[in-house]
Amino acid sequence: MARVELRSECAVAATLDIVGDRWTLLIVRDLLFGGELRYGDFLASREGIPTNTLADRLRKLEDAGLVSRELYSQRPPRASYRLTERGRALGPVLDAMATWGVANVPGTRRLGDFSGRRRGPGAG
Predict the structure, then answer these.
(1) Is the pLDDT score of 97 beyond 90?
(2) In this predicted model, what pLDDT tens digit does every residue of 11-63 receive, in sequence order?
(3) Cα Rg for the chain, rounded, in angstroms?
(4) pTM of this prediction?
(5) Which of 85, 67, 83 is nearest to 35 (CA)?
(6) Residue 109 contacts by C-beta under 8 Å, 6 or more apart in sequence?
(7) Looking at the DSSP assignment, which residues form a beta bridge with residue 82?
(8) What is the C-alpha separation between 59 and 105, in angstroms, rounded?
(9) Rounded Cα gap, residues 64 and 83, in angstroms
């Protein structure tokens, strides 16, 4: 796991440095619902993450110790991804965000729970 450069001692700022962009928590959401996923599974998500962004975020999540990567094919190299224990610990954060969204963003609804039980990509 790579050490994350802290811009301050604030825990919120440090957490945002790891998961605070537009796509990272959606990748975590998909892994919470889907368990082990392959690259194409993420691309099938409703939000339509660009391939270059997906590759970058998966690499950053792996470097931060939130996602593990396992090769299932050597030629061509292909990997599957799953959350580590640290990554699964983000479940309550996503649950709180979904609760807030339902209460404060008209037209949204809770599509699942964030306990880590399997569903499909893009189900949050």
Answers:
(1) yes
(2) 999 999 999 998 999 999 999 989 999 999 999 988 999 999 999 999 999 99
(3) 15
(4) 0.83
(5) 83
(6) 102
(7) 68
(8) 31
(9) 11
Could you give the maximum distance between any two Cα atoms of the chain, in Å? 48
Cβ partners under 8 Å of residue 78, min gap 6: 38, 39, 71, 72
Phi, psi at residue 106, to the nearest 5°?
Answer: -55, 140
Residue among 64, 67, 78, 70 at smallest CA distance from 32: 67
| Alpha carbon distance 57, 67 (integer Å) | 10
CA distance 30 to 43: 11
- Give me the DSSP letters along the chain: -PPPPPSSS-HHHHHHHHH-STTHHHHHHHHHHHSSEEHHHHHTSTT---HHHHHHHHHHHHHTTSEEEEEEETTTTEEEEEE-HHHHTTHHHHHHHHHHHHHHSTT----S--SS----TT--
Place of tokens 């802290």: 6
